[in-house]
Design a protein that fits this description.
The complex is a heterodimer of chains A (about 260) and B (about 450).
Chain A: E1 4-6, H1 31-34, E2 44-46, H2 73-84, H3 93-104, H4 109-119, H5 123-130, E3 144-149, H6 152-156, H7 159-170, E4 195-200, E5 212-214, E6 217-219, H8 224-236, E7 258-259
Parallel strand pairs in A: 3-4
Antiparallel strand pairs in A: 1-2, 3-5, 5-6
Helix pairs in contact in A: 2-3, 2-4, 3-4, 4-5, 7-8
Chain B: E1 6-7, H1 21-26, H2 32-39, H3 42-52, H4 64-69, E2 79-84, H5 93-100, H6 102-116, E3 120-125, H7 130-145, E4 161-166, H8 176-183, E5 207-211, H9 212-224, H10 226-230, E6 240-247, E7 253-258, H11 263-270, E8 280-284, E9 293-294, H12 295-298, H13 305-310, E10 319-324, H14 329-343, H15 349-367, H16 372-385, H17 393-407, H18 409-418
Parallel strand pairs in B: 2-3, 2-5, 3-4, 6-10
Antiparallel strand pairs in B: 6-7, 8-9, 8-10
Classes of the chains: A alpha+beta (about 260), B alpha/beta (about 450).
């Protein structure tokens, strides 16, 4: 591949699969259009393999000295309790990160350092664990979380529209305005702090498709009106969709079931 | 007409308070555990489970008693992990079992621990199941207080400890060796097998890993015997199965049936059949990783491990996803592939790259930018994934996509010629979207039909 590539639209920067909530990528260039086209010099950057432009980096942070890190008592107790439940302390990595996230709203660098100090591991170790799992937030994401399932069963029942409705309701994405050819049809707007909406892989509730996990509780089947109501209810601090809670649902069928006893 | 549902695990499932130990005991719970610990030796419990023919309900369908018998005997720390990381698209049966009847599972775990000689048990539950995790936490505490767990189970001197461990959102952790790594506090990457977990698993100790539904069957088998259990279901698939039906049907939900009943009964009678005025085009018989069956070839098969295998598919976790004639199979393939691409841990090249390529080629087809050779490439990529990775995540994409290309070739060819009009490319998981060809704003693929 030529080292001369247009700055915008480098295909490897638009891979949607690995990075959650990455900023809206630039549009994919139409490969055919680029063939034989003269690219102005100021739109070209030379990709060098050398690392001369990189920041110098030192040693990774060591295991924090417990005496040097101030850890809130409650957090320390939660992590120590988790450690005591496993034969090896590292098993408490995920419970410790949950404790950090519940306390600070996301896995803050300082929170990770505190957990690392209690567990006696490096912050980088916990960071490496946190970055593997989808539910750990590595940046602040608002007070309320709405995860909209977009997998097969929910998609079949209209999950894409539901996700759009949630995004419209939180005004995270503006309605598509007449786009310039070759630009994305919608512009990301400022993210409000309070309600964070995100498309998610199968949440294991295909019976109530299309559904969403709202502040870690399941609701469905949801309509676009529900999406608007949820956002209003969350912002008002009220109860969310009391008639659509999964926990109140009975098992399907059963009217004619034969019950057998062991 | 004979009743179509047979409720063993779902018996009195909606009884108020069933999640509490009092109600569970009032309805006959925790009697099997007395029998297993006071009247039977560990060998007898194991023999009963082996003779019952109970097959794993998590996907592979391996005989549960046989798996337990692989653990070495002798005094050492041995582990039992209950796999409650139910994350496969289409599967939601374990959620219902844990939420409504947690003590049935806990009793099953304690009895299985006796059969396997395990003293430390874990329930690995996916992090998204927060409500169910809370319910299990409370139930485990009750079981400790009642003396069913701890250093001295029922005064027999046996020790069984049980910890509820929550994951944090990664489908790969449902793979048993990735589950072990995750439980050890690492990133959830699968391990090379052998050694198998039965020999060297959690903390390098012998480990038995079973699904929620499998373990929930254990108390019933011990209480009533293997012969009684085998009186239900088919010879090779004894017992009942909780089947999760979802997608384009009138009444999606969990239905417990005897294995071997016609698939049509499950989809068309229990789940109400296709939506008004629609026709079933095909379905996944065992979760999103099972090769799809067309309505013609699949509806009249008996729903059992062996019949699905003979038809070139699998029963898997017992999750049926139905799609009707309004669904574009190319779009369905993209949804399926995207999931596995997103969830691939990236350790093995065929899976990491193969899922990525498949997604890109399917996107090209939907945009109408593909060439006929892409279809051959999609098919050959699937062939090159299968069997070439540490775990079966890549295979789980390759099998259904391969089947879709084979059985709905015409739709793929049409897509190559003119794309899929009206299809949405909005990436579901990454919250990013690729502008369709020509920069048109993405049109929603389907209107909500709920």
């Amino acid at each position: 591949m030529s080292p001369l590539l247009p700055k915008r639209g480098r295909p490897w920067t638009t891979d949607p699969g690995h990075i959650h909530d990455a900023p809206e990528p630039p549009p994919m260039p139409d490969e055919q259009e680029l063939v034989g086209r003269d690219i102005p010099a100021d739109e070209v950057e030379v990709v060098r393999a050398s690392g001369e432009a990189r920041e110098p980096h030192g040693e990774p942070a060591p295991v924090p000295e417990p005496a040097e890190v101030e850890v809130p008592q409650e957090l320390a107790d939660q992590i120590r309790k988790a450690m005591s439940r496993y034969p090896r302390k590292r098993s408490a990595a995920i419970p410790a990160l949950w404790a950090v996230q519940r306390r600070y709203g996301w896995c803050t660098p300082e929170g990770i350092r505190q957990a690392a100090a209690v567990m006696g591991v490096t912050p980088a170790y916990l960071q490496s664990v946190a970055s593997f799992y989808d539910l750990f937030r590595l940046e602040p994401q608002g007070e309320h979380q709405v995860l909209v399932c977009t997998n097969i069963s929910c998609w079949l029942r209209g999950a894409d529209d539901l996700l759009e409705a949630f995004k419209r309701a939180t005004q995270r994405v503006a309605k598509p305005s007449a786009p310039e050819p070759g630009t994305p049809g919608r512009e990301a707007e400022e993210v409000p702090d309070d309600v964070f909406v995100r498309g998610f892989e199968c949440l294991g509730a295909c019976d109530i498709a299309p559904m969403a996990s709202i502040d870690e509780r399941y609701y469905g089947p949801l309509t676009e009106d529900d999406a608007r109501n949820v956002v209003e209810q969350l912002r008002a601090g009220g109860e969310v969709l009391p008639d659509k809670r999964l926990e109140d649902r009975k098992v399907a069928g059963g009217s004619d079931a034969r019950e057998v006893e062991g | 007409m004979a009743s179509q549902e047979t409720r063993l695990l779902f018996r009195q499932i909606d009884e108020p308070g069933l999640a509490s130990i009092e109600t569970y005991r009032e309805l006959g719970g925790y009697r099997a555990i007395e029998k297993a610990y006071k009247e039977m030796t560990p060998e007898q419990v194991l023999k009963e489970l082996e003779e019952s023919g109970l097959r794993g309900r998590g996907g592979a369908g391996f005989a549960m008693g046989k798996k337990a018998s692989f653990l070495p005997r002798g005094g050492m720390d041995k582990y039992l992990c209950c796999n409650a990381d139910e994350s496969e698209p289409g599967a939601f049966k374990d959620r219902e079992l844990m939420q409504k009847n947690p003590h049935q599972l806990i009793e099953g775990i304690i009895i299985a621990a006796r059969a396997a000689g395990a003293n430390r048990c874990f329930i690995f539950i996916r992090g998204e199941y927060d409500l169910q995790g809370d319910i299990l936490d409370a139930a485990v505490e009750e079981a400790y207080e009642a003396g069913f767990l701890g250093e001295d189970v029922l005064g027999t001197g046996e020790q069984v400890e049980l910890v509820v461990h929550r994951g944090a959102g990664a489908y790969i952790c449902g793979e048993e060796t990735a589950l072990l790594d995750s439980l050890e506090g690492k990133r959830g990457n699968p391990r090379l097998k052998p050694p198998f977990p039965a020999v060297q698993g959690l903390y390098d100790g012998p480990t038995l890993i079973n699904n929620v539904e499998t373990l929930s069957n254990v108390p019933h088998i011990v209480a009533s015997g293997a012969d009684w259990f085998k009186s239900m279901g088919t010879e090779q698939s004894p017992g009942t199965k909780v089947v999760s039906v979802s997608g384009d049907v009138k009444r999606p939900g969990n239905y417990e049936v005897e294995l071997g009943i016609p698939t049509r009964t499950i989809i068309c009678d229990l789940a109400g059949g296709p939506l008004e005025g629609r026709e079933i085009k095909g379905f996944f018989p065992g979760g999103s990783s099972s090769p799809v069956l067309t309505a013609d070839e699949g509806l009249d098969l008996p729903y059992s491990f062996e019949a699905m295998q003979e038809a070139g598919s699998m029963l898997g976790s017992g999750s049926i996803i139905v799609f009707d004639e309004t669904t574009s199979v190319v779009e369905l393939a993209l949804r399926t592939a995207r999931f596995y691409h997103h969830e691939s841990c990236g350790k093995c090249t065929p899976c990491r790259e193969g899922t990525n390529w498949t997604v890109k080629m399917l996107e090209r087809m939907i945009r109408g930018q593909a060439t006929p050779i892409d279809l051959e490439t999609v098919a050959s990529v699937q062939d090159n994934i299968i069997g070439n990775c540490l775990c079966v995540l890549g295979d789980s994409m390759a099998m259904p996509i391969g089947a879709m290309v084979k059985k709905f070739r015409g739709e793929f060819m049409a897509a190559i010629e003119r794309g899929v009009p009206g299809a949405s490319l909005g990436a579901p998981s990454g919250d990013t979207a690729i502008a369709p060809h020509g920069g048109e704003p993405p049109e929603p693929a389907r209107v909500g039909v709920a």
